[in-house]
Write a structure and sequence with these properties.
The chain has 64 residues and is mainly beta. The chain has one domain: SH3 type barrels (Roll). It is built from no helices and four strands. Strands 1-2-3-4 form a four-stranded antiparallel beta barrel. Strand 3 and strand 4 form a beta hairpin. The protein is globular.
């Protein structure tokens, strides 16, 4: 599942995000969502989140 809909992502969810510095290369970082930062219901580039380790990026994949 991709991360474009805010309703699909909850704090505690295991996700893969792309960090701002990795947008050109597309390198994904795995982690657990601590907080949702995007307020809109959806975003074409992925919902922006903060992971539990403090990293911020846009969700590209939601893991089971």
């Amino acid at each position: 599942m991709d991360g474009r809909k805010r309703a699909d992502i909850k704090p505690g969810a295991h996700v893969r995000i792309v960090l701002k510095r990795d947008q050109r290369t597309g390198v994904l970082t795995e982690g657990v969502v601590a907080k949702l930062l995007t307020k809109s219901r959806q975003h074409p580039h992925g919902i922006k989140v903060r992971l539990e380790d403090g990293q911020v990026g846009r969700v590209k994949e939601i893991l089971a």
